[in-house]
Amino acid sequence: MHNVDLIPGDSLLTKTPDEGRQLAIAIARRVVKATQPDAATRERLREVYAGDAALLLQVCQIVATEFATIAAANGYWRTRHDEP
Amino acid sequence: MHNVDLIPGDSLLTKTPDEGRQLAIAIARRVVKATQPDAATRERLREVYAGDAALLLQVCQIVATEFATIAAANGYWRTRHDEP
Amino acid sequence: MHNVDLIPGDSLLTKTPDEGRQLAIAIARRVVKATQPDAATRERLREVYAGDAALLLQVCQIVATEFATIAAANGYWRTRHDEP
Amino acid sequence: MHNVDLIPGDSLLTKTPDEGRQLAIAIARRVVKATQPDAATRERLREVYAGDAALLLQVCQIVATEFATIAAANGYWRTRHDEP
Amino acid sequence: MHNVDLIPGDSLLTKTPDEGRQLAIAIARRVVKATQPDAATRERLREVYAGDAALLLQVCQIVATEFATIAAANGYWRTRHDEP
Amino acid sequence: MHNVDLIPGDSLLTKTPDEGRQLAIAIARRVVKATQPDAATRERLREVYAGDAALLLQVCQIVATEFATIAAANGYWRTRHDEP
Questions:
Q1: A53: closest chain B residue by CA
Q2: Cα torsion at E7, E11, E16, E17 (round to 10°)?
Q3: Which tens digits make up the pLDDT trace of D30-68?
Q4: Is D62 at the interface with chain E, CB within 8 A?
């Protein structure tokens, strides 16, 4: 594994579901970065999966799985943390 | 990631299971949008997976995974929220 | 998404595990219907996946995932609801 | 969906983990039966997936997913039910 | 299904996470054995998936899924059972 | 299965989410090692999946699944353990 920060901010807690969703996408990408450290190769692969129906759906499946964990960590944001 | 609202209404809470299911479909689509920002390409890919048995089943798998999270967030709607 | 009822009866609660299993199959099918609204195309795809080992297994995986949610919603039917 | 019993005994509760595992395999098979009612076709497909590495692994994935639900239903058999 | 012991020791409880991991691998293999009872065929398929990147990753996915259940059964080994 | 340590430190508990993520990657790799003991073959397969979009996404899916278990084991790191 290459030395990359695997979780931005090193926490699963976010203020809102939307930020939780962004975090799900971010942590999935960092696994790609740790597995394929060459930025040019990653860019090429990214164009492949953004234009292929099956791969795009695979991306959705990963985000859904990561998000399940983040949502549980945040108690599903049933009580909002962004209010005074 | 492109700047799109990833969760409509920024909440996982819905009044009914049916609305939870709609939300599951909606949040999956927004991952597609964030990954492939070009609307014409998305439209082309959508026709691909709507007419292909394997891809259509992949869509079902994603919705099932997203829905599991939304259902847990809503306590499985054991107590209905839409009654007076 | 096309306007279909996504959950029959708009509830995850069923009397028995068997009915929960039927519901799992039913809600998966409605995602297919929402994604591919043309009945003739759906019928053609259905024949494809009913005769293909890999696709048939993909159907099983989806049903297993949907059923996990429905079973949790029903407290795994540890106490039966169909007794007087 | 064809009219088959989807869960033998209509219960997720089993005496032992081993019986839970058997149930996981049984309920997965009944989804195959409900989706492909023709016994001869099922037999042909079964030979296909028993001799193909990828499909055999797909079977394992399904059983793992079904078993997760059954294990949760049984409180993971932490207390054995088969003792007097 | 062929008559094989599906869970060694007929219990999901293990002393350590490492033993839990071994159990995850073991119970996945017994599904292969139950589905494909011919030892020679299994050996041939095993060489296929040990030398193919996609199939090897599929094995990892199965083990991850089985392990999730075993880890939950053991309360994630937060309190170690192997101390006096 | 070949005799490898399947979990480094034989524990699912980590100080931070980032270390939990590293553990998720590490335990997935050890399944590869247990299934394919030949280091040269593993190195060749690793180059295959690091350069292939579909396989790279499969790696992400595995890590997401392993991480779900590790995160649950650590109570999602809601209370940080690295403070005095």
A1: B45
A2: 50
A3: 999 999 999 999 999 999 999 999 999 999 999 999 999
A4: no
Residues in chain B within 8 Å Cβ distance of C30: 21
* CA–CA distance, A26 with A47 (Å, rounded to integer): 17
Distance CA D38, CA E22 (A): 39
What is the spatial distance between Cα B33 and Cα B38, in angstroms, rounded to a whole number? Answer: 8
Structure tokens that stand for D83 in this block: 């003792």
What's the CA gap between A62 and A34, in Å, rounded? 16
ipTM above 0.90, yes or no: yes
pTM above 0.90, yes or no: yes
As a whole number of Å, the end-to-end CA separation of chain A is: 41
Q: Which residue has the tokens 């296929």?
A: E48
Q: Which residue, among F45, F46, F74, F81, would best test binding to E if mutated, counting the most E CBs under 10 Å from its CB?
A: F45
Q: Do C68 and B67 touch (CB under 8 A)?
A: no
d(CA F1, CA F3): 7
Q: Is the four-CA dihedral F27, F33, F36, F41 of positive or negative sign? A: positive
CA gap A44, A68 in Å, rounded: 29
Q: Phi-psi region for residue C10, left (φ > 0), alpha (ψ -120 to 50) or beta?
A: left
Closest chain D C-alpha to E34 CA, distance in angstroms: 10
Q: How many CA atoms lie within 13 A of E68 on its CB side?
A: 25
Domains of chain F, residue spans: 16-77
Two structure tokens written together for A68: 């399940």
pLDDT tens track for A1-57: 556 799 999 999 999 999 999 999 999 999 999 999 999 999 999 999 999 999 999
Query: How much is the average pLDDT of E32-49?
Result: 95
- In single-letter form, the type of residue at position F49 comes to Y
